[in-house]
Amino acid sequence: MFDTRDPAFVADPYPAFAELRGQAAVRWHPQLGLYVALSHAACDAVLRDRSLGRIWRDREPAEAFPAFNMLHRTSILENEPPTHTRLRRLVAGAFGRGHVERMRPAVTALADGLVAELAARLRDGEGSRDLIADVAEPLPVEVIAELLNVPSGDRHLLRPWSNAIVKMYEYGLDPELQRQAEASAAAFVTYLRELVAERRARPRADDMVSDLVAAADGSDRLTEDEVVGTCVLLLMAGHEATVNVIGNGLLALLTRVDQWQQVVDDPQVVASATEEMVRFDSSLQLFERTATREVTVAGVRIPEGAKVAALLGAAHRDPAVFADPDRFDVRRSPNNHLGFGAGIHFCLGAPLARVEVQAVLSALRVQLPHLTVARTPVRRPEFVIRGLVGLDVTAGP
After folding, report:
1. 37, 150, 201, 204: which sits with the fewest CB atoms below 10 Å from its CB?
2. Can you give the CATH number for the domain in which 262 is found?
3. 377 with 392: CB under 8 angstroms?
4. From start to end of the chain, where are the E strands?
């Protein structure tokens, strides 16, 4: 069985996934203390089966993690019906008020501007630049900050808070990193309570926080904690996933010159290339569920109360669903990846994430058509959230 602490496995988990998938679609993982689903069908079943739910249990000791636990206790992602039904209805109602289409021109302009700055620095003789730091990191933070209408002077706070909090999703996390995650969660909660109070007093048009606050007064409305939890979820899910889809995906794309050339030559390929970037090197490798009653997945009995994880990276390389799954194909169709989840927890932000990744690809293909990876990048040491420390690129010939 794979070891999530093994740097070689973290660097490239896919051969291990393929070997294990050939043995069984679902297996017990003793290190993680849960069952893992390795085939696409088994992962899809884990995500959709209503006997398998997101059952939040506070991080212990609870008194050490009050802010972190509150954010997850009130999250759409960590609740099941009827709480999830109520939260999703209210949040989707606010999110669905044209915010994605409202943001599309801003996302395009932001991506164009960030890539233009990158191109100028590369052409001014800087040799190479880090595409993660220059484009992939700032883009989603700015997009979420714009969506929430966070004052420009405060936006530098969001990325460090998000980076610290998501470390808590890894297994065997160092106590100091746990402490930093709680401190960041507490700071973020305090900041958002003040922002919510300001928007309640002075609501704004075309403002996601104002729309959420409008659903916070009266019966069957979002509470203040739920508004705060939703805002944090939007940042963490929107920021971490998008950064790593762009980083992982562009590494795969740019190191396959024939595939990148197809994107450069044909703007119609941008949409399908985006889906392949989501599939090929999953930014989220593992997503847990808990059995609310005994359930069978791919012939394996999961006892009530046991945890089972969908290994999305394994699902996305399943040859039963994807022809030649280890090949990066910008024209892959169909592409039935599970990168945005499935079932009732399907990602509300998926349309916005697609707009962001497509905007970056569109800007790069026009402004830097000969973009090249300068050196082998270093991967982040975490397994669950898969990403790069940086991606150094050059402008090419």
Report:
1. 201
2. 1.10.630.10
3. yes
4. 26-29, 34-37, 52-53, 129-130, 286-291, 295-297, 300-302, 307-311, 372-373, 392-394
C-alpha pair distances (Å), 310 with each of 123, 135, 154, 241, 254? 44, 30, 36, 17, 28
Q: Which of 57, 2, 4, 387 is nearest to 170 (CA)?
A: 4
In a domain, 2, yes or no: no
Does a structural domain hold residue 1?
no
Q: What is the pLDDT of residues 263-293, one digit of tens each?
A: 999 999 999 999 999 999 999 999 999 999 9
**SS3 of residue 110 by DSSP:** helix
Exposed e or buried b per residue across 13-52, where buried means at least 16 C-beta atoms within 10 angstroms of its C-beta: bbebbbebbeebbbbebeebebbbbbbbebbbbbbbbeeb
User: In the structure encoding, which two tokens stand for residue 207, read together?
Assistant: 């403002």
Rg, Å, the chain Cα set: 21
Domain count, the chain: 1
Which three-class secondary structure state does DSSP give residue 276?
Answer: helix
pLDDT tens digit string along 140-173?
989 988 888 899 899 989 889 988 998 898 888 8
Alpha-carbon span 229 to 72, nearest angstrom: 7
20 CB contacts (<8 Å, ≥6 apart)?
Answer: 1, 2, 27, 38, 314
The torsion angles phi and psi of 6, rounded to 5 degrees, stand at -85, 115
Within a domain: residue 160? yes
Placement of tokens 């997009």 in the chain: 143
Nearest residue to 75 via CA among 252, 295, 229, 213 = 229
d(CA 305, CA 286): 18
DSSP-based three-state secondary structure for 310:
strand
Name the DSSP class of 379: B
Q: What's the CA gap between 136 and 371, in Å, rounded?
A: 15
Amino acid of residue 225: D
Give the torsion through C-alpha atoms of 246, 249, 253, 259, to 10 deg: -100
The predicted structure's pLDDT at residue 102: 84
Residue-wise pLDDT for 331-357, tens only, equals 999 999 999 999 999 988 899 999 999
Identify whether the C-beta of residue 341 lies closer than 8 Å to the C-beta of residue 347.
yes
Residue 268 inside a domain? The answer is: yes
Q: How, if at all, do strands 372-373 and 392-394 pair?
A: antiparallel
The number of beta carbons lying within 10 Å of the beta carbon of residue 355 is: 21
Average pLDDT on 351-376 reads 96
Containing domain of residue 228, as a range? 7-394
